[in-house]
Amino acid sequence: MRETLKIAIQTRGRLNEESMNLIAGAGIKLIPGRRKLISAAKNFPMEVLFLRDDDITQTVADAVADVGIVGENEVLEKKLDVVISKRLGFSKCRLSLAIPKTVEYPGPVFFNGKKIATSYPVMLKDYLTKYKINAEIHRISGSVEIAPGIGLADAIFDIVSSGSTLVSNRLKEVEVVAKSEAVLIRNTNLSRGKKKILDEFIFRTESVQRAEGKKYILLNAPNEKIQDIANLLPGMKSPTVLPLAQEGWSSIHSVIEENDFWEVIDKLKKTGAEGILVVPIEKMIF
Ligand code: PRP
Ligand code: ZN
């Protein structure tokens, strides 16, 4: 029997869209289902389970799903036996302590004897223990940011991304306790077949991620300028140089970082490069 890899991702929320993009970017097409709890893939041995963020780590630890995409904070909070296979680089955020904007902050001692509202009591407790702070942890499952305003707590410990939730609740971030991003986690006991599928999935996503922020550049230049241009365009190994029909000219191809693009273009033009084309790269395989 051919095995399938069951991957659990968030139904909605901060990780959903990027998780779907990752799967689509790997060339995996899902069969649209009426009940959107589980979708099989058409062209890859994979099934996608759509779950609440909160449940994904447990599901993977219990082998109900083989792998999952969650915020690293979920792994740190749940302390379950799962392995991080790959850091995914999206949904970056901080887990921070915040207090009302108008309250003076003398440092971590502030929290002694205070009440802190959070959905991440385990991470918070680890922090308080480490810094020998004696505070009361008030666990709530959502809308943590309103707790100080309604007199439920003196401070909060929560996810901060853009910071706009804090601003609109008149809070200020005073301690960054941890940083987090989306991670691909797996069960500790995957069969060999499933491991192979996972490796293939990771290989495909890495090829796509590697291409992000990179462009393919083509240009024409007089032969005596090839070395100058090659110095400006190191490329993956070295640029490809092809002779043009026109005597004494060549076509040069390479890969550049999108961020370096405008700076390099200027320098290239000064060397005498012509007909510069910059095109997107879909995948990069080494
Ligand atoms: C987190 C956190 C804040 C918000 C912070 O909630 O609890 O509410 O994001 O983001 P910001 O700094 O960009 O404003 P999330 O969206 O994960 O949903 P939840 O609180 O309902 O779980
Ligand atoms: Zn929230």
Describe what you observe in this structure.
By secondary structure, this protein is an alpha/beta fold. The chain has eight helices and 15 strands. The protein has helices spanning 16-25, 53-61, 72-78, 121-130, 164-168, 192-211, 226-232, 261-271, and strands at 5-10, 38-40, 46-51, 67-71, 82-87, 93-100, 115-118, 136-139, 155-160, 171-180, 182-187, 214-222, 240-243, 249-257, 274-280. Strands 2-3-1-4-11-5 form a six-stranded mixed sheet, sandwiched between helices. Strands 8-7-9-6-10 form a five-stranded mixed sheet. Helix 4 links the parallel strand 7 (115-118) and strand 8. It is flat, with a radius of gyration of 25 Å. Bound molecules: 1-O-pyrophosphono-5-O-phosphono-alpha-D-ribofuranose and zinc ion. The site of 1-O-pyrophosphono-5-O-phosphono-alpha-D-ribofuranose has 12 residues, from strand 9 and helix 5.
What are its keywords?
flat, 15 strands, alpha/beta, 28% helix, 286 residues, binds zinc ion, 6-stranded mixed sheet, 5-stranded mixed sheet, binds 1-O-pyrophosphono-5-O-phosphono-alpha-D-ribofuranose
SSE series: EHEEHEHEEEHEEHEEHEHEEHE
Q: Helical segment tally? A: 8
- Major β-sheet annotation: 6 strands, mixed
The gross shape turns out to be: flat
Low-confidence stretches: none
Distance between the termini: 32 Å
> In percent, how helical is the residue content?
25-40%
Overall mean pLDDT stands at 94
Question: C-alpha Rg, in Å?
Answer: 25 Å
Q: Tell me the structural class.
A: alpha/beta
